[in-house]
## 1
Amino acid sequence: MKRRLAVLTTLVLLAGAVLAEPASAQTAPLLACGSTITTSCSETAHFSDLNQWQTPVGPATDCPAYVVDDYALMVGTGNGIEHANVNKAGDFWATNTFTGAVTLTFYDPADVDVTVINENGDITATPTGPPDAVATGHLTQWFGVSDNKQNGEFGFTFSFVGVDRSGNPLALHGASHTNWTPAGEGFSGPPHHSVTTAQC
């Protein structure tokens, strides 16, 4: 039970970090349910601002090199909501959704000073050179995690549709899903199934 609650705390922190830095009151806040409150609880919060760094996407189908290789700063405004729930058995669920207008600024790894801020791989970064590309458009993304006696699951989807500074279209879509089945408690050992896709 203690291990599961520690996992919950880590994943709820990740859920908040996935969509926004906690520095602004309007970005996704750190929910107490699952982090400082580890007994039965339920909590929901709304937020409007997105301001976060993303690591390079990596292998992706039909994408420009800067999408695949660069760090991206995502800044935008829209509608965000996050939920966290823990039941009496210690089972938990957390989700985080954002949709709105964003600007993506892509930096070559040689032109950005990156600091990993926690064990989840969340980062902060400082540009040290000019961006490779800037795109503006609409982003929708969702994050979800759950763990119970029978399984554990982690998922993420995103969709960006916009244009670069020259007016060229850019559409980026991706999804990731990983699950653990009763070979042990969720999130311990290798997953039963894992798939990640990204394409332009």
## 2
Amino acid sequence: MGSNRELETLLVRHIEAWNRHDLDDLMSLFAEDCVFESSGGDEVCGKRYQGHDEVQAAFVQVFASMRDANWGDGRHHIIGPDHAVSEWVLTGTLSDGRRLEVNGCDFLTVRDGKIILKNSYRKQRPPFRV
């Protein structure tokens, strides 16, 4: 990717776009052939979304499921020139009014300044009533 500073800027922009629920800006950070491996699903990798359109549709579902979702306490760790980890605490309210609060991280792979793989993990307790 160039430099650690460029990679860190990408990581910060990524989490900021999530927090603004800015789908256009978020998707501008991803390559056309990107892959998103979500935290949950029927596959060993969670659920795998391939290509810009599938990844975008998955992100739309995330925003729709928690209109107030926030990925706070962002911390970023550069592993190598094209690999990094972003840690966060996801908080939000589900459509039934229960709250979600989980610790999580994304393992990100970058090529030519764009994210090609977002592999998400999280520690999740059951949603709770406030």
## 3
Amino acid sequence: MIEFYWPESIGEWLAFAVAAVTVGFGLLLFLMPRLSFRILRLQPVEGRADAIAEGRGTMAGFYLGCGLGCLLLAQPLIYLVLGLGWAFTALGRLVSILFDGAGTRFNWLSLLVEALLAVLPLGFAFGMI
């Protein structure tokens, strides 16, 4: 029988919390893609459902799969994958800020949040917290 594993250390709880936040983002994108796009300052082209499908499929699917995988399997290497995913998300945003002129307050705040979401599971996976 499979049992749900509860975190035991502070570092594991922090990584678990990032996985839960990731699942929350995935659920928001999956269930309310139009609202999610407004929050992300994206706008689909009228009359084309392709962008909505992208939000529900690619974006929500990845967040849900990675986050739920962490919550259900609770292994340090899986948390490492979650941390690397958020780290590359933050890196992509930083590159855009530096090279695309996207240095808005929203992007800087998002960069800080994404960096925090990367550091917590990586710190646990590497035994630092």
## 4
Amino acid sequence: MNLWILSEGVNYELKMTHKDLKENLKEVHQLKITNETNIVELIDSLKNSGFNAKRLALACEIYNEMVNDKDCIKFFGLAGALVPAGMQKILHDFIKEGYIDVLVTTGANLTHDLAEALGYHHLQGDQIDAKGFNDSDLYKSEMNRIYDVLMPNKVYEGIEDFVSNLKIPDNEMTVSSFLQFLGNQLPNNSESILNICAKKDIPIFCPAFTDSGLALQIGFNHQQVNLNHFKDMLKMVDLAWDAKKAGVCFIGGGVPKNYIMQSLQFCPTSASYAIQITMDRPESGGLSGATLKEAISWGKVNEKAKYSTVISDATVALPLIFWFLKESKKKN
């Protein structure tokens, strides 16, 4: 019989008998956690499970290979607004530990990162179910809601005060250069994404920067500024072109994912490693739900690449991946 085996990162035909099939299939291991189980052992055990637990284990394994591959440039695409949910320090430490070489993100993440760095905080709502909030009352109380997280209007007022006092050295610098300048204006003890990238000289690309509260304040208060997006685009292509190997990790999708992928598309080296954490579906044709396997047809992901798509809320999966990487680093 001919049996097609289709799974994430695997696509091959097996010609075997029913007897061969039974002999080659592995049993699903039933998980057991003891008082001695650590995160590395837990993730390793998930490799023998099923569904997204197995995909998460594969993603951890692939990311660890990326980190230990000295020729690999690690491109990290960050969509949405994860900082309000409490992921700022996780993302900061991804960069601090050397797990990200190039960051592409939304303006929302940078806006909220700046707010936290300036001493403002996002607030927990009491109700997980959005029906528990009266949004009209929140509006009257000058509170903005992000699902079950709240942010006072005064946060934007604080950002405006900070931005209005900036002495921007070049009105036509690239967005990435401006973000490096901005990061250097922040306290070094803030655990800010902007600040750690500036200190470690990790480029931050934000191709849709004007789609953010931070950019609005810059536009309002520094109308002479005209940041250059095209030079950033060419710089990004150069980074992808010069990489001996490329590895990508996408948190969500959207503009950050496409920005990285389109750079790889026109380079001789497509991604050798690829990870995606998303809650979106592929059927609508949107990039956020597009499979990594689909990217092979574009030349963005190598046909021999190791890849895994994890269907999960990133606020659950991302800390687990970081914890696994950090503990694995201790064992190396």
